[in-house]
Amino acid sequence: MIREILATVVIFLASSASAIAQTPLEFEQIATFDQPWAMAVLPQGGFLVTEKAGRLAYVSATGEVRTIEGAPSVTVDGQVGLHDVALAPDFETSGLVYLTWVDGTNGGALHLGRGRLDLAGPRLDDLQIIWRAEPMGGSGHPGAMIAFGPDGHLFVTSGDRQLGDPAQVLGDGRGKILRLMADGAPASGNPFPNAPEVWTSGHRNPYGLTFDGTGRLWSHEMGPRGGDELNMIVVGQNYGWPLVSEGRQYSGRAIPNHASRPEFTPPLLEWTPIIAPAGMIYYDGLVFPEWQGSLLLGGLASQALVRVEISGNTAREVDRWDIGHRIRDVATDVDGQVYLLEDGSNARLLRLIRGN
After folding, report:
1. Which residues have CB under 8 Å from 259's CB, separation 6+?
2. What whole-number percentage of the chain has pLDDT above 70?
3. Nearest-CA neighbor of 120 among 48, 66, 63?
4. In this structure, what are the phi and psi dihedrals at residue 94, rounded to the nearest 5 degrees?
5. 5: pLDDT confidence band, cut at 50, 70 and 90?
6. CA-CA distances (angstroms) from residue 62 to 2, 3, 40, 67, 242?
7. CA-based nearest residue to 160, from 177, 141, 147, 134
8. Residue 11 clears pLDDT 50, i.e. is over it
9. Are residues 354 and 23 in contact, defined by beta-carbon separation less than 8 angstroms?
10. I need a surface site. Which of 13, 33, 114, 205 has the fewest CB within 10 A?
């Protein structure tokens, strides 16, 4: 395993941030990957990491990387492939691991599946598809993020696949956030009888999903040309895409903003210029006590780690660290250590260390 302490991060004040980042950071490299997409920290130490091309990897606590057999067959095209990985709430007894991926013709469909992890192999046994977006198709990113609620319900983001209109059609699985049982069945108490899996609608590309310490659900999504959003997810709400946005079409054509359509729920925070937000966690650890109660977001276009303070129904960016690499995912462990996963070829899995 290669371990090295990398140079202290250069800190800068972004135009949308309200304060210069106060915590100097250094990094410890743990392992490298080819186009990784997401990671999950194992309770016994080590990580599971997905790569877009379809590889599921086990990383030991000492940095050894091994391929896990039994991962699903995926369609690798543009922004799609193998995506998120998450541990079941009862993972230490059940061994269940959840994955999202895209497979199929005409752009494929977002799939959600689960299997039982055997690290002795390592392999994933009895992988079963428990949900699939219908109808299939589209060319853009599928969202594909997984989060378990405090009550054990399973939440999944499903992107609009750059089609726009499906986000406003309740019977279409794209452009939604879903609330499911652990086995993939629609959860009871969801708000739409004719769309029993749907929790919220009107989403473009919801690519971050996490619960805070009070049990509230947060999601962020990439805007079109400007208008990246951070949203507090409230049952039954419609977040407006593609009818409203804080950004513009890629062509430059204007889109009405949220203020023009009060029936749609506006973001609590928006970024123009974009940061291209990626993985997101809620932080309440002891390693960086000054970050407690914050959201930590990876930035792709911004090549940054972004800290957002949330208080009541407000959110504001307070720190942004220029990492110098596209950040695909962020994770924390039970001790409060924070890990970053870079994007692209020869991408590093890094542990944050407080600098001098």
Report:
1. 266
2. 94
3. 66
4. -90, -30
5. very low
6. 9, 9, 16, 16, 46
7. 141
8. no
9. yes
10. 13
What are the φ and ψ backbone dihedral angles of 125, each rounded to 5 degrees? -95, 150
Query: Looking at the predicted structure, is the pLDDT value of residue 19 above 90?
Result: no
Cis peptide bond upstream of 273, omega within 30: yes
- Contact (Cβ atoms closer than 8 angstroms) between residue 117 and residue 161: no
pTM exceeds 0.90 for this model: yes
With 0-12 / 13-18 / 19 or more C-beta atoms within 10 angstroms meaning exposed / middle / buried, residue 211 is: middle
Q: Give pLDDT, residue 356.
A: 80
Say which DSSP state 273 is in.
S
In order of start, what are the domains of the chain with their CATH numbers?
5-354 (2.120.10.30)
pLDDT in tens, 202-233: 999 999 999 999 999 999 999 999 999 999 99
Residue 99 and residue 71 in contact, taking contact as beta carbons nearer than 8 Å: yes
Q: Average pLDDT in the 76-96 region?
A: 97
141 is catalytic: yes
Catalytic residue from among 141, 153, 203, 220? 141
What residue type is assigned to position 39 of the chain?
M
- Neighbouring residues of 287: CB distance < 8 A, sequence distance ≥ 6: 335, 336, 337, 338, 352, 354
